[in-house]
């Protein structure tokens, strides 16, 4: 058995009961250090822990795959929900194992943001820049989302200077593309764990600095009117 488990946004109160059960029953628990820290109390005393970072993740996932093929129950734990800005990691796990791997959804930082900021998913698009490969199609899509009158929930890219696309870069890029500087914009940090929130306009966001553990909301300038039935 091997399963990729979404650990939620940081506080274990947001880890699903099924995720907690799978970790408690695992022979091997693997993940990035920061995520393992979230679930540490649930890891059985006798379990093998395989921790990894961006540089050694491919080699460490090969070790997880060896354990899996030896018949061990393996839980690979990821931040938030694997299906938002975690899918490339699932692809790496599957490549190491040589077959598709089950995933268990977790609560995403995007869901917590939507709840804090009172945003309706139906009228909002999620975009991440925290991924390998060509970001250009995702940048274009973000512009189209705002031009189409939707909100955007955006995970920035915190990597090295060359690739970094943090909220201040995103705001500057959007304005260069002709998006109004007046869009209400929010940046939320460390959701569920010592949160900080910032509210301003897109123009002001270009001058606002935040930590890597941030998620951004760019609101539409024209929120949809409620379409529920008239009040009795
Ligand atoms: C690789 S992405 C994983 C996102 C995750 N799969 C999810 O659904 O939330 C990691 C980035 O998500 C954002 N993030 C994750 N947890 C967060 C939290 N609790 N508060 C704010 N941002 C968060 C940060 O931008 C972080 O660098």
TrEMBL record:
Protein's UniProt keywords contain Transferase: yes
- Per UniProt, residues of the Tetrapyrrole methylase domain are 1-204
GO terms of biological process kind = cobalamin biosynthetic process; methylation
| Enzyme Commission number(s) | 2.1.1.289
Q: Which domain of life is it from?
A: Bacteria
Keywords, A to Z, come to:
Cobalamin biosynthesis, Methyltransferase, S-adenosyl-L-methionine, Transferase
Write one Pfam family the protein is assigned to. Answer: TP_methylase
Q: Which pathway does the database say it acts in? A: Cofactor biosynthesis; adenosylcobalamin biosynthesis
The question of whether S-adenosyl-L-methionine is a record keyword is answered with yes
| Annotated GO MF terms | protein methyltransferase activity
Q: What is this protein called?
A: Cobalt-precorrin-7 (C(5))-methyltransferase
Kindly list the organism's lineage.
Bacteria, Pseudomonadati, Pseudomonadota, Betaproteobacteria, Burkholderiales
């Amino acid at each position: 058995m091997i399963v990729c488990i979404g650990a939620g946004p940081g506080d274990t109160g947001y880890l699903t009961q099924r995720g907690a059960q799978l970790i408690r029953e695992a022979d091997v628990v693997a993940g990035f250090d920061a995520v393992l820290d979230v679930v540490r109390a649930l890891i059985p005393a006798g379990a093998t822990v395989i921790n990894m970072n961006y540089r050694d993740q491919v080699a460490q996932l090969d070790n997880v795959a060896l354990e899996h093929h030896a018949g061990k129950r393996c839980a690979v734990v990821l931040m938030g929900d694997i299906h938002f800005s975690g899918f490339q990691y699932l692809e790496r796990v599957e490549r190491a194992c040589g077959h598709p791997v089950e995933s268990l959804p977790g609560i995403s930082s995007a869901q917590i943001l939507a709840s804090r900021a009172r945003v309706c998913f139906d009228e909002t698009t999620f975009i991440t820049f925290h991924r390998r490969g060509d970001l250009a199609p995702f940048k274009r899509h973000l512009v189209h989302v705002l031009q189409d009158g939707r909100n955007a929930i955006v995970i920035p890219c915190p990597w090295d200077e060359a690739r970094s696309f943090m909220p201040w870069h995103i705001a500057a890029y959007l304005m260069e593309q002709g998006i109004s500087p007046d869009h209400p914009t929010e940046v939320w940090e460390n959701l569920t764990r010592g949160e900080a929130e910032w509210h301003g306009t897109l123009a002001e966001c270009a001058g606002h600095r935040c930590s890597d553990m941030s998620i951004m909301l760019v609101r539409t300038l024209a929120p949809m009117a409620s379409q529920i039935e008239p009040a009795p």
